[in-house]
Amino acid sequence: MEIGVHWDQCEANGICVGIAPDIFDLDDNDDLIVAEGPVPAQLEGDVRDAIAQCPKAALFAKD
Ligand code: SF4
């Protein structure tokens, strides 16, 4: 799977960072950073949890 972001909806509250810190991060400007490329299989569960729990519905799976 790959991750899509509705950038206009993200409010950089860091919920996804807390759930899947190997995939999501916030930079010094509190902008969201998403690891590029396909999500490693062992992290897909965490990423799907992050997608489900994003309070702004800013994340989606591309596949
Ligand atoms: S949980 Fe959603 S709103 Fe919060 S930082 Fe992640 S993508 Fe943005």
From TrEMBL:
Organism (species): Antrihabitans stalactiti
Cofactor(s) named in the record: [3Fe-4S] cluster
Domain of life of the source: Bacteria
Gene3D superfamilies: 3.30.70.20
Protein name: Ferredoxin
Molecular function (Gene Ontology), one example: 3 iron, 4 sulfur cluster binding
Keywords: 3Fe-4S, Electron transport, Iron, Iron-sulfur, Metal-binding, Transport
SUPFAM superfamilies named among the record's database cross-references: 4Fe-4S ferredoxins
InterPro entries attached to this UniProt entry: Fe-S_cluster_ET
